[in-house]
Amino acid sequence: MKTVIANWKMNVGVRESVALARGTLLTLRGRKTIPDLVICPPDVALSEVRKVIARSSAKLGAQNVSWEVSGSHTGETSTRMLQEFGVTHVIIGHSERRQHLGETDEMIQKKVAHVLAEQMIPILCVGETKLERDAGQAQEIIRHQLSVALQGVRLRGGDKLFVAYEPIWAIGSGEPASVGEVVEMHRFIDSVLTQLFPDAPEGQISVLYGGSVTGENAYGLLRETEVDGVLVGGASVKLNQFKDIVGAAAEVLEAQQTA
Ligand code: 13P
User: Fold this and answer.
1) Domain limits of the chain?
2) Going by C-beta distance under 8 Å and a sequence separation of 6 or more, which residues neighbour residue 132?
3) Which of 47, 61, 189, 233 is least surrounded by CB atoms within 10 angstroms?
């Protein structure tokens, strides 16, 4: 299966989210095979977007969550609150939160563990800076982020985990990682995850790519077996782009079925 996740970030208000959700569902229409689709609107739009996607196969995701159950945590949103809106997936450790809000691997670990304990699906983001890549440290950085964020995390039978490789230099830059760079890093991530979760059955952990994914480059990325899906920012709020990304995923799935 291939998964397409739309991260709308802080780009759309409630009214725009409703229109975008309707348009996003239309991108699935008329296709024999469709990828799994997860829509992550801003929290304030979750309730309205939920209504729009209620009768579709699309799932609802949040862009962040607290690791606390409840209490005096001004401005935070809990897993239970998100569940009231029908949220099943949560993006955790996005580089924009790491860079600008001081989110650490240790905080991210608490969120991943808590989200899994609440039977939700974490989308754990990892990625290196340009400086780190140029210094030949990309794999070391990713290994460190994964091992701290997943320390002590256990996956039970029904659990599911997404890891999204999002190189910081590729996010919003119009400069995606090359297919070769993505495949190489995904193989490395797979090897780290196999060490961390030696008993995880096939399909329990999926590795996605994010960073300047567009309608033009999505097919080339998604046709690689190492790429289980894409996490899309900018192009997810541009329906003509997003339609092509969903189309690329559907094409890859159809080709797999006839192979
Ligand atoms: P862009 O697709 O805009 O590069 O953003 C990627 C991203 O951060 C998704 O989480």
Assistant:
1) 3-62+78-199+218-258
2) 138, 141
3) 47
